[in-house]
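Attaching the record inline, Q. Sequence:
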Amino acid sequence: MQHLHQITVDVYNAVLQVLFGEPDECAQAMRECNIEEKVIKDWLDGINERKDCYGMFSHNDEENFTMLWLREVPVTIRNYASLVHEIEHYVFYLLRRIGMRHTDASDEAYAYLTAYVFEQIDNIIVTMREENEKQD
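Structure, as predicted:
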C-alpha cells in the first residue's frame, strides 16, 4: 500500500500531504520522499503524545509542510467522521494562514474548501481500493 499522497489546493497555493498507515510505516514513507527528519520527529512525537489517536493534522510552518494522517484507510462512518474532523483542522489552519477569519461572510469559503479536500482524499481512497482489488 502506498502511504504518502499529496493533494494541491491551487487557489491558496497549498499542498497537503495525506498519509494512511501505522506511524512507523508512514515515517519511512516520509523519509523516502525526502521529508526533513525534524518534521518526521515532530510528527511522531505528536502521535506518541496521543497513543490512542486514529488521526491527526499537523503542520510545520518553517518547512511549509502540512499533513493529514489516519492510522488506516477509512471504512466505517466513525473512520470517515475522523477524516472530516482532521480536514476541518486543515481548513481552519489554511484559511487562517491567509488571513481569512471564520465569520458568517466567509462561511461558504470554509464549507467549499472542506468539501474540496474531502473529495480529493476520497478520490485517493477509491483509487487505493481499486488497486488493492486488482492485486487480490
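Residues 4-135 form one domain. Strands lie at 4-9, 14-20, 55-60, 65-70.

More tomorrow.
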